[in-house]
Fold each of these.
Amino acid sequence: MGTSVKICIIGAGSAQFSAGIVRDLCVNPGLAGSHVVLMDIDERRLEFVLQLAERLSAELQANVSFSKTTDRQKALKDADFVLNTAQVGGHQWSEDQRKLGEKHGYYRGTKLHNFPQMHLFLDVARDIERICPNAWLIQSANPVFEGCSLMHRETKLNILGLCHGHYGYLEIANVLGLEPQYVTAKTQGFNHWIWLTDFRYKGEDAYPLLDEWIQTKAEAYWAKADFEFWDNQMSRAAIHLYQMFGLMPIGDTPRTCENLGVGWWYHTDLTEKQRWYGSLGGFDSELGWQKYLDRLSDKVDDIERAVTDASLKVTDIFPPVQSKEQIVPIINSLVNNVEGIYQVNIPNRGGIVKGFPENLVVECQGVVNGSGIRGVSQEPLPAKLVAGTMNPRWSQAECMIEAMRLGDYHLLLSCLLMDQRTRSLTQAEGYLREWFADPRNEQLAKVFRIHP
Amino acid sequence: MGTSVKICIIGAGSAQFSAGIVRDLCVNPGLAGSHVVLMDIDERRLEFVLQLAERLSAELQANVSFSKTTDRQKALKDADFVLNTAQVGGHQWSEDQRKLGEKHGYYRGTKLHNFPQMHLFLDVARDIERICPNAWLIQSANPVFEGCSLMHRETKLNILGLCHGHYGYLEIANVLGLEPQYVTAKTQGFNHWIWLTDFRYKGEDAYPLLDEWIQTKAEAYWAKADFEFWDNQMSRAAIHLYQMFGLMPIGDTPRTCENLGVGWWYHTDLTEKQRWYGSLGGFDSELGWQKYLDRLSDKVDDIERAVTDASLKVTDIFPPVQSKEQIVPIINSLVNNVEGIYQVNIPNRGGIVKGFPENLVVECQGVVNGSGIRGVSQEPLPAKLVAGTMNPRWSQAECMIEAMRLGDYHLLLSCLLMDQRTRSLTQAEGYLREWFADPRNEQLAKVFRIHP
C-alpha cells in the first residue's frame, strides 16, 4: 500500500516537466493513491498536460489521480508538496527582456529577468504559508539560489531547491572514458555555482586522470568536428576555471559565470564564447540557445502527437522507469521514511557550507528521511576558491536577494552596476527605466515604488 | 615623570609624518625620556629628518632622544612601538605604476600598487615577530584595510591601523554651519570604507539637518566658484552614495569607491569626476593629485627652510600642541593606562562589525587603556548598506588579501578581472605581464612564481 499525498505543480503547463513528474509518480508504488493538482495560467496548455497525465497514468495502470485549475490558491488547498516550476511570461518575456538588455549594451541580456521570477516566488511562498503552511515547497524554477534564499528569509516554509547540474560529474567521467558505476563525486557551493570537492574512480582520487586528459587529450577533444552542439562541462572555459581556482566547476557552473562577476571574460561576444565553449558558443549563445529552444519545441511536438494520436503510446516518450529527477524519490523518502542521499539546496543552518551565512540557501548533499532533510557538511572549500569565486558570487546574490526583499530601487540598480558590461550610471538607469515601463513589470514597479 | 618607550618609525624619511609624531611626543609629558629610531632606506632624507627632529625637540626643550638607521632589523631591536609609514618606491613608483595602468586602459591606474606595499608590510611584520614580538605595530601606510588583515592572518602581532578619514564628519558639520564642540559622530566599517551610523548636534539626530541642506543648499555649494580644490566629504558623489545606501560615507570613503566595485561610475573619466567632485575632479583626478603633490612639495620646502635657516623656528610649522593625529595619545593610553576612546582598525574579534569574519581588520571605535584595545560594537549596519556596499568591498578585499597571502597569480589576476574597466582576459594578463617585468617588482614576481 502506498502513502497518498497531494502534490501541486505551479506552472504545470510545461509538458515535459509535468509529465516527467507524473511518470516518476506512476512508477513509484510508495506513493500510490496520490493526487496531482496541475496549476497554470495557460488554460490550453493546462488541458493538454492534464490529458497527457491521464494517458500516462492509464498506460502505466497507475493509481494516481489528477485535477487542473488556473486558481493558485485553490490549487494549494491541502497540498503536501508544492512544486514551483513557473516561468513568468514564458520564453517570450525572457526573450523580450534579453532584447531590451542588448539594446542597452548587454550582449545576451542581464540577470534582471530574475526579478519577475523572485517576485512570483514570494507570492507563491506567502500563499503556501497561509493556505498549506506544513507543505514542502520544492523549487525548480530559476533562480534557485537567490529565490530560495529570499523565500527562506521571508517565510517559515520548508524550502527545498532542486536542479540537475550536479550530474555534470558523469559527463566528466564519460569524456575521460570511466565506467560510471565506479565513479563517485561530491560537490558543494551554491546552485549553479558548485565545485567538485571529491572525485573518485574505483575509490581512488580521479583528479589525476582529469589532469592527464587535459595534458594529452583536451586539445583534440576541443578541436573535433562532432563536438556536442553545446558543451559546458568539458569546455575550455570549465578547464580554465579549474586551472584558475583548483576545483572543477560542475554542471551549470561553467556557463553561469556569465556576467556574474567571475567568468564574464568567457562571454564578451560570440567569438569569445566560441573560443571557450565550442562552435556554437555554448548553451547561452544566440546559436546554442536557439538549438535549445528548437529541441524543446520538437519535444513538445512529439508529446503532442503522442497525446492526440490514439495509435501512439506516451510511454514511448516517457518510458516507465524512474528518471534521474530527484523530486519523486525525495517525496517518497520524506513520507515513507526511506532514507536516501540527494543533492539538495537548503538553508545553510549550522554552516553546512562553511563561511557563509545561515540564512543563505546552499547546495550540498542531504540525508532525507521521515524526519526531514539534514545537510551533509564537508571540509571548508579551499581558501583560494572561496576568495576567487564563492565570495564574489555570494556578494552579488546578496545584492539581488536584498534588493527584492526590501523592494529597493538602489540595490536593484547596484545589481546592474556590478555587471561588468555597465559603462556608466546613465546606461544602467536608462535600461532600468525602460524595463520598468514594460506593462508586464507593472506589479514589480509598484514593489520598487517606481512611478513612470 | 614620563614612561620612556622606544618608538621605531619605518619610512621615517617622510618629514611631515615623522615631525608630526616627534612634535606630539615632545608635548606629551607622559612619554618623556622616550627614544625614537628613525629608519628609512633614503639616507639623505633620513639625515634631514633627524636634524628636524632634534631641532623640534630642542625648541620644545623636550626630553626625547633620536637615532637613525637604514638597517630595519637594527631599528626594531627592543622597540615597544613600530610605526609603519613606508611607501615602497615612493611617489615615483606609484606614478610609474599608474602610467602603466593607463597604458593598458585603466584611467588613473589600478589597485595593483597595493601589492608591493603588502609585500613590504609582511616583511616588516615578520621581522617584528622575530625581533620585538611584544611591540605594537601601528600601521599608517596604505592599504591599511587589506594590509592589516593580511598581517593579522600571517602573524601573532598586536596590530593597529590608524587613519584620519573618520574626522570627515567635522567637514560635514562645518559645511552645515554647526558648532563643532556640540557635534558627535560614530562611524564603522573598513578603513576608507566607513559610514556615519550616528550623527548628533547638541544630542539630537543631525541627519535631518543634512537632509535639509541637500534640499536647499547643496546645489549652490556645488556651484560656487571658490569650491575647495578637492572635495570628497560634501561632494555630489558623497551625497549620491548617501542617497543610494542610506548613510553618509565618511572621509576617504566617497573617493575610495574608485574602481573598487562600488562607485566606479563616479570615476570613468575626468569629466565624470568633475561632475561628481567639483572643478578639479577630486583628490584622485590628474588635476587634484597634482595639486596634492605640489602642496606636499611646498610643505617639504617650508620644513627644509626651517631646518636649515637658523633664524627660523620649526615650531612655526609644527606648533607645540598635540595634533589630531592619534598615534602618540594612543601610545600614552597604552603605556600609562590613560583610558581614551579612539578610531582604530583592529581585528574583528567577537564580531565588532557584525556579519564579517573575525580575521578581518575592521574600523571602529576602540577603548584604549593599559590592558590594550577593546573594539566597541555597534548595532549591525543596515541590511541595504551591507548588501550594496560592505559585502562587495569585503569580497574584493578578500581576493587581494588572499592573493598576497597565498602568492597566487590567479587570485591576483582575479583582482584585476573584478576591476570594472577590464574588458578582456587578454588585457588583464598583458598588463600583469608588463607590471611583473618591471625590475622593481623582481621580489614580488618570485613570490607569485612568475618567471619572465
Note: The longest helix of chain A spans residues 383-406.
Amino acid sequence: MNQYAIAVHGGAGTILRSTMTPEKEEAYRKGLSDAIAAGEAVLKKNGHSLVAVEKAIRVLEDNPLFNAGRGSVFTNKGKNEMDASIMEGRSLMAGAVTGVRNIKNPISLAKAVMEKSEHVFLSGEGAMKFAELMKAEREPDEYFVVAERLEQLKKAKEADKTMLDHIGTVGCVALDVHGNLAAGTSTGGMTNKKFGRVGDTPMIGAGTYANNATCAVSCTGHGEYFIRAVVAHDVSCLMEYKGLPLSEACKIVVQDKLVKMGGEGGLIALDAHGNIELAFNSDGMYRASKKQGGEIFIGIYRD
Amino acid sequence: MNQYAIAVHGGAGTILRSTMTPEKEEAYRKGLSDAIAAGEAVLKKNGHSLVAVEKAIRVLEDNPLFNAGRGSVFTNKGKNEMDASIMEGRSLMAGAVTGVRNIKNPISLAKAVMEKSEHVFLSGEGAMKFAELMKAEREPDEYFVVAERLEQLKKAKEADKTMLDHIGTVGCVALDVHGNLAAGTSTGGMTNKKFGRVGDTPMIGAGTYANNATCAVSCTGHGEYFIRAVVAHDVSCLMEYKGLPLSEACKIVVQDKLVKMGGEGGLIALDAHGNIELAFNSDGMYRASKKQGGEIFIGIYRD
C-alpha cells in the first residue's frame, strides 16, 4: 500500500498581508483545512484519489470565499458561468465542462462527463442538458449572489477591464493508497469576462492533468498564458521525457517559462511517490497539503 | 532565409479505395491541392506562416467536401456548430473558438481572437458576439446544408450514435522563410453530436500546437482520445525534452500511445528545418504537402 497525500489550492494572485484582516485570514485557512479534511476522509478509508479530489473541491465550491461554485464571480452580464475539469492518472480518463450555470458543484458534473458520457468536454447549453439528464444539483441565481462579487463587477465595469487580481480558481491533487493520482480544478471565471471566454481550468493539459507515470497537476492563474504554455502537461512531460524530479519540473514551468511569458499564477502538483509542490510566481496562493500521518500545511502569502 | 514548407489535411478515418469513385477521389485531390496553392502563394511572397495557414484552411472550409466551414456535419439538432484554433510558433500566441454557427470561416475568427482580443478561447454565444464585433463573414443556414451531410445525420440518428467514421477535420502547418512555424485546425464536429461536445480541434495543446523551438502540429481524429493524450503538445515535448527527431516523436504518439488508448486518427507536423510528417493510424487520411522548389505530394489511403 502507498502512503496517501493530498493538496488543494484556492486561487493565486495579489494576495497581500497588508490587505488581509485576521478574521478573513482565519476564514481562508479554515476553508482550505476543511477541503483537505474532506479529501483525506476518502483517502484514509482506502478510497480513490478521484473521489477525494471531487470531495475536496466540492467543499471549496460550497465555500463563498473561493471563486468557484457558490463564490463564483460575475461575467459582464452579471451571470455566473463556471468551468471545471477532472482527470484520473491510472486510465488517463478525463471530464470537463465550460460555461455552466446554476450548477451547485461543477466538479461533480465534470466527473459525470468522464464517467457517464462518451465525451471529455461539454460546453454551455449542451452541458446544461447533460446536467439535467444526470440530475445534477442545481441552485437558483440567489445562491451564487455574494455581495463582494457584485462590488467587484461594479468596479471592473467602471474600469472596463477583467479583474486579473482575482484570478481565483480552486483545485485539488491526490494520491491514494492504491498508487493512483488524480487532479481537478474548478472556477467561476474572471470578473467582468465577455464573449464566453474559456480559461485553462476546463482544459485537460492546461489547467488540469494527471498521469500515474508522472504527476497530478491543478493550476490557477491568468488562464490565457496557462493555455498557451500547456502548463499542467508540460510539468508532466519534463518529468517523463527529461527525467526531472517534480520540484525541478514545477520550478522551470512556473518560475521560468511562465514568468518569461508574463503569465501570473501557480499550481499544485503531486507525484506518484507522494512528493508535493505548491509553486507560484504571484504575491500569494491559497494552498494547503497533507501527507499520510503528517501535519497539515497551510499557506497564503509568498513567505 | 529559410526554405518554406507547408502541409494540409482534410480529415482521417475509414477512407477506403473500395468505397471511393474516381470522380470523388479527383475532387478530394483537387481540394487538397487548392489549399496547398493558397498557402504557398503567401509563403512564396515571403509572407507569414500564420497567414498561409489561415488562407489554406479557408480554402478547405469553403470546399463542401471537407467537414469544416461549408461542409460541416450536423449536430443532433440539425445545426452546424464549428470549432477552430490557430497558433503561432514564434510568440506562442493562439486563438480558438468553439460552438460557432453561420460563420463562413471559423479559422479567421480564431485568428481574430488571437490578434484582437485579450483572450485565447471563446465559446458559443459569446464567441458569436465577438464575431459580430469583428464583422466576421456570415452565411445563412442554407449555405451549410449539403445533401450528403443531412443523409449522414439521418443515418446516425437511426443508429443513435455519433459517426466516428466521419471524424473530419481540416488543418494546416506551415514554415515561412523567416523560420516561423504556425498551425491551425478547423472542424464541423461530429455528426449527431449532443450536449455541446467540444473535441480536440479548438484545444491548444491537443488538436493544434506550434512552437518555433520544436514543431507545428494539426490533428484529426477521435477528439476525446486526442484531448486525453494532449497529442499536439506531446509531439513537441518529445522533441524538446527527449531530443527526438520529428519523425520519431510523431511515430511514438500516433502509432504507439494513441493506438494503445484506442484513439483513431492522425496528424500533420512540420519542424523548423522543414521536415514534414503525415502520420495516421486509421485507414486513410486526406493529406498533401509541398516544400519550396519541390513537387506537391497528395495522399488519401494508407498505402
Note: Chain B has one domain: 5-298.
